[in-house]
Write a structure and sequence with these properties.
Layout: H1 3-40, H2 45-69, H3 89-92, H4 99-108, H5 114-131, H6 137-166, H7 172-212
Helix pairs in contact: 1-7, 2-4, 5-6
């Protein structure tokens, strides 16, 4: 292997190590910040539980969204309605809604509850029923899909209620004990990341020294 190639490979390794250091330092800072917040009481056990609940809800509601989007008439509502498709639509419908927009609102946190989700679905269907004549095929398909989807939402709400009422309540003292164990675990991970960063920096110094020889 030629000397120029060795130098090139060494330089590539140096750049790779620099990138790894930046990533590790970023993870270390975030983890350290979380630990400090917990220890200072700024992030308590209820915060952790609420965050976990929200993530579980979002995962479940996205499954429901996919079921709605797979309905045989869902193609009518997959994208925003334009005036080209439906003449004077924007003059008739003042607050448009479609499945793509609803999904985006779920992902960005605009829609945060099942009630919000249900409200926007109803808005979407009511817009279609209001714009189209009751003899129109779109009206009939929208009405049928609305009935099917609202039944799915009702089932989702019933399941959600059952899970919430049957879920055992963890005593606050036990939650705090679990949280402290989590803090200790986080501190160990933080320490390990710090050592990993130091090891990478050591290799980086060695590689830089090697390029100067």
């Amino acid at each position: 292997m030629s000397e120029s190639m060795v130098r090139r490979l060494t330089q590539e390794r140096i750049e790779e190590l620099k990138k790894q250091i930046r990533v590790e330092r970023s993870k270390y800072r975030k983890l350290k910040s979380t630990v400090e917040q917990i220890m200072a009481g700024e992030l308590d056990d209820m915060d952790c539980e609420v965050g976990s609940h929200n993530r579980a809800w979002k995962k479940s509601i996205m499954i429901l969204w996919k079921q709605v989007a797979s309905h045989r008439y869902a193609s009518l509502f997959l994208q925003p309605v334009t005036n080209d498709i439906a003449p004077n639509y924007s003059d008739t419908v003042y607050r448009a809604m479609d499945l793509a927009t609803l999904k985006k609102n779920l992902e960005t946190g605009v829609v945060r509850t099942t009630s919000d989700f249900q409200r926007d679905l109803m808005l979407m269907f009511q817009n279609a029923l209001m714009y189209n004549n009751h003899e129109h095929d779109v009206y009939k398909m929208a009405l049928e899909m609305q009935n099917d989807v609202m039944a799915q939402v009702a089932q989702f709400l019933a399941t959600q209620l059952m899970v919430e009422t049957t879920q055992p309540v963890t005593p606050k003292g036990l939650r705090r004990s679990t949280l402290r164990r989590s803090v200790m675990s986080s501190e160990k991970v933080s320490e390990a990341r710090s050592k990993r960063t130091a090891a990478i920096e050591g290799e980086l110094k060695f590689m830089k020294k090697k390029t100067l020889e």
